[in-house]
Amino acid sequence: MSEEKKKDAETAEEITEQEETKEAAEAVQPEEDKQEEASEVSELTREQELLAQIEQLKAEKEELNNKYLRAQADLQNFRTRVNKEKEQMLKYSSQRAIEALLPVVDNFERAIAASQDAADVETLKQGIDMVFRQLQQVLEQEGVTTVPGVGEPFDPNMHQAVMQEDSSEYESGIIIEEFQKGYKLKDRVIRPSMVKVSS
User: Fold this and answer.
1) Where does the record place Acidic residues bias (predicted)?
2) Please, are residues 197 and 163 in contact by the beta-carbon 8 Å criterion?
3) Residues 49-64: pLDDT tens digits?
4) Which of 25, 184, 189, 193 has the lowest tally of Cβ within 10 angstroms?
């Protein structure tokens, strides 16, 4: 074989190899392009999903924020209403007791009017005694009771000792005289008794 033919054969062989390589590369290239396209489509889909999730979370956040604001407003309205009711209760808390005392006041007025021309002191005394008993009943209905006095052991929670005295009749620490009655409202002392205690 001549040198020229050899070169032509080698060149033809190289060209064939290059063409085969090119064909192989072209065959691989569409596969890579397909993968790239699929990857791009996948990324776009993922991006769309994330955007949809973000929109959904924004909507949920807005809804929760609105619920929170409504709850805050409801709470504020409730507090305002409770405070107003409390003020009303405090303002008129003594109404029931006063309504119960009004008949007693009426009877005192009648007794005073009758005493102007009454010659019978005993009748006047009985009338005042009746009014006093009526007043005591009203106080009892409201839960007002007297603090136990003479003959009872001294209790600093209910009694105020203003004097002490030796006593042969009572042992030490017993109330022997009451100067002013004490009163309790249900279980609370509203005025302690002023007492003399045996020493």
Assistant:
1) 29-40
2) yes
3) 889 899 999 999 999 9
4) 25
CB count within 10 Å of CB 43 equals 10
Q: Is the distance from CB of 186 to CB of 169 less than 8 angstroms?
A: no
Amino acid occupying residue 63: E
Q: In what order do the strands lie in the sheet with 188-191?
A: 144-146, 183-185, 188-191
pLDDT digits (tens, 9 = 90+) for 4-52: 666 666 666 666 666 666 665 555 555 555 566 667 667 778 888 889 8
Instruction: Please tell me whether residue 43 adopts helix, strand or coil conformation.
Output: helix
Coil vs helix vs strand at 190: strand
Distances in whole angstroms, Cα of residue 86 to Cα of each of 61, 89, 93, 144 = 37, 5, 10, 23
Q: Which two tokens stand for residue 188?
A: 């609370």
Q: Which residues contact 191 (CB under 8 A, 6 or more apart)?
A: 182, 183
